[in-house]
Design a protein that fits this description.
mainly beta, about 260 residues, 4-stranded antiparallel β-sheet
Length: about 260
């Protein structure tokens, strides 16, 4: 059987002006594009970003986690300063504010972060009963190192962006620094051999913890992941730096009480 060959039909007619409807944008671009076509002048090659933005006004309501938005003097030009990481958080009014990664004295003693989508407070002394508190809108985590022997009573000291508790455990220093999504703890073993296991007592309010197959600890709120405790990494201080991933054990004692062990 052979199919009948038919000649091609006439080409489609050209669309009229009324039929040329622009497609809808995938997201709201209110205020980002002028109804009339406008091309702002391109900055010269190698220009300093701060010079390019001179005379333009920061528009915090138009920013985002990884960029700042600016508008020109007449409201026509729109510029964005892009960053390779999260640098902003959104406040209760919908504006994007800078995340402060510096430590500031807490009014009741100790230290805290100067601003961000979370609040962390470090005690003035790391001692029995003292702990690091990390709080987000969904709840909080309170963490305290558990010593195999007696936990030392050590005052913290800040140098640069690092808070250190020297000798808080036998042969152990604890160092803390802030970043855009939380804080980092560094455990420095000052003697050999050091402790083979480090343990942390964690109290969760409004949150729960679970260990993932990859070893990180997920922080959950109503079953949704809202944060995590990264898998720890160990480094050797020898000239040929060696790296390993310690094992972790998370024990749920009930009532928001957990024990995290690093082996």
């Amino acid at each position: 059987m052979a199919a009948e060959k038919r000649p091609p039909g006439p080409p489609p007619r050209e669309l009229t002006a009324s039929e040329r409807v622009p497609p809808l944008a995938e997201m709201s671009e209110d205020g980002l594009r002028d109804p009339e076509e406008y091309t702002p002048p391109a900055p010269p090659a190698g220009a300093d970003p701060s010079e390019v933005l001179r005379g333009r006004t920061l528009a915090p309501e138009r920013g985002g986690p990884t960029f700042d938005a600016y508008v020109g003097p007449e409201g026509q030009e729109h510029f964005a300063a892009l960053y390779p990481m999260v640098v902003n958080y959104q406040d209760s009014e919908g504006n994007w504010r800078k995340i402060a990664d510096s430590l500031a004295p807490h009014p009741e003693g100790g230290w805290t972060n100067a601003g961000g989508a979370f609040t962390v407070r470090f005690p003035e002394e790391m001692a029995p009963g003292a702990a690091v508190t990390f709080q987000i809108p969904e709840g909080s985590l309170t963490t305290q190192p558990v010593a195999p022997g007696a936990l030392g009573r050590v005052r913290g000291s800040v140098q640069g962006g690092t808070l250190a508790y020297r000798g808080v455990l036998p042969g152990v220093d604890l160092e803390y620094s802030l970043h855009s999504a939380g804080f980092k703890e560094t455990v420095v073993l000052t003697s050999h051999p050091g402790p083979s296991t480090l343990a942390y007592d964690i109290q969760a309010q409004g949150l729960s913890l679970e260990k993932s197959p990859t070893g990180e600890i997920r922080v959950l709120s109503a079953g949704q992941v809202v944060g995590f405790i990264p898998t720890p990494v160990a480094y050797d201080s020898s000239p040929t730096i060696d790296e390993s991933v310690p094992a972790t054990t998370l024990t749920d004692l009930g009532g928001g009480h957990y024990v995290l062990e690093v082996h």
